[in-house]
Amino acid sequence: MDWVPEFQNPGRLWTLALLPVLIIAYLIVLRLKGRVALRFTNTGVLGRVVGSQKRWTRHLFVAMSLASLVVLGLAYANPLGTDKQPRERATIVLVIDTSQSMSAEDVPPNRLDAAKQAAQDFLHELPDTYNVAVVSMAGTPSIVIPPTTDRGATERAIDALELADGTAIGDSITTALKAVDQAPAGDEEEAAPAMIVMLSDGTNTDGPPPAEAATQAKQREIPIYTIAYGTQNGFVDLDGKRENVAPDTATLKSIADATGGTAVDADNADSLKSAYKEIGSAIGYEEVKKPITATYAAVALGFAVIAALGAVFMAARWPR
Hints:
- The chain has ten helices and eleven strands.
- By secondary structure, it is an alpha/beta fold.
- It has two domains: 6-82 and 290-315, no CATH class; 88-283, von Willebrand factor, type A domain (Rossmann fold, 3-Layer(aba) Sandwich), CATH 3.40.50.
């Protein structure tokens, strides 16, 4: 669960075992003190000796003392938090739908041309160190350009995309995974993290179910970010017949959810740019673990200060 903290030195949490010991000792002291009070029948004199402190205040300050010890014990184990930092390198595969439905003009001048422009704008926002590949999604998906840092070549590959028959979403994911395998190794020992950005405006019509390919991506820890593109009223005229080409938002969302990506919708040029911007923010950063011991120590200090004030309060003889 996300709310359970991680620790750099979990073996040091043994210090928390002292808490029940201290609580038991405190309860024993209270019990012994109660017996002494029963034997002291002159309560007026007893009140003048020990003062008129309320029982609940004593319990509160003791609780603050114990809380400070608990938080200090957690701090001793070096708790870890998460922070986002820019990725230095990555492999991004742009999967762009080129099926006949992309000729719909509900997004002017048409879906495909608007998608090309948005993809190029997205390309320019990526760091120069990112390798980018392009996959054409149709009935027979293909790698238009393998992963490269040559932005000019990638831009020309996007410009060259043309309409084709069919929509094979599952095969397109498989093809994108093959494109990831073509990424340059680089000088680092570990491969750069890979992500797939898929834009589609239709329903899977060819090849295996998209869920099967999504499972492969999940197993390889490659998230897929999807953009459901177009309006619900979009249409194309094929073979003299008008067909509705509304995006299959449910399928695309299931792909993103299954692989740890994000699903967004875009029904016009501006929202498409926003969708790419949102995805760019997600893939441009990675979560890293960092020590947050100082935060825990500050909380422990707060509890300790309250407990110390309580000790002063109980020790002082206030005028009556």
